[in-house]
Write a structure and sequence with these properties.
The protein has helices at about 5-40, 45-65, 75-90, 95-125, 130-150, 160-175, 200-225, 230-250, 255-270, 275-305, 310-335, 340-360. By secondary structure, it is mainly alpha-helical. The protein has twelve helices and no strands.
Length: about 350
Amino acid sequence: MKIGRFQKNEIRLLSGYYLMLILIDSTMYSAFTMMILSYFSNQLKLLILGIESLVAIFIFIDTNRKKKMLVGLKLQDYIYLGEFGLILFLCFPNSIFIKCFSYAIVTLSTSLLVLDISKSIIIQQSQFEIGFMKLANLKTFATLIGFGIGGILNAQFIPSLIILIMIVFAVSLILVNRFSKVDSHKSLTISIGKIEDIFTVFVLGILTANTSVWVPIVAVSLQHQYVHLTVIAFVLPGVLTLILMRWLIKLPTVIILILFVVQSLIMIIGFINQSAIVQTFCLAFIVPTSLSISVHLRSQFFKKNTIFDLKSLIQLLSVNSNTVLFVLAILSIIVPNIGIYLLLVNMVSMIILVIKSQKEKL
């Protein structure tokens, strides 16, 4: 399907807005996690992950309701909701409960916006793979930059960050008027029994966890051995993702799966030998490889489940990744070296996918 000039311009605008939303979301996530750690013990770093998971679950439930509460609103309404959360934060600067509540509101606002923009980008592309690759590139780049910015902000700078986001939201009100909200008439409710290839959902959940789990681990290793190179753990994976994704996506899925297993083995060796440099370069290659696998798996999963609304499927995967991250964060408290176990589970999953793909060819 050929994309017209007007449609290309709209895709560029949508992509830019999506990038900005992910950057806001990841910066706030990182900054608020640091703020929670400054107030409470290390265990309460799970609080922000818990809020993210609850918000994702709420939106998923709402997408499958006949009478929708928030998902059916206009894009402008989501921005007003976010502005309300930001104002609430500034009005009660000394209440940690209000701060967490306002974070939940802003997360709800950005998640709803991201959901609509994601659906629009995927639908307007000529193929599922192209749409998912664009989203994966943008999300990885913005998330790593956002984590880096939020991680270096002191709690005293968070009000300034809030004001900046308020200004961005206000300006974006003009921008969203140019977007047409994509609605769907499909109303089939998602249930586990009706979903085709549920194993893919599990694999996508653990794949998306790789970046969130391993970037902090590698950053700490670099901080201990090469403190001036810590920022590389955030920047290098994003840069290599932008460079390699277009090449990796053209490779057969089986080759990418095998490549991921080899890279994971090298990463484990680097971790055991406590080599920060080996870990850094392995992570930089693991991120684009796992994202390429995710693009293939997501496109296949969506094609197999076309009876459901695209927005519901997107949110299902969002709930899945948030839940996996939350569970891993809890396990990290009681299980040392959780990153190694995550890689091992990833490797086993990749081997199963290789066997599965070969059987499907027979």
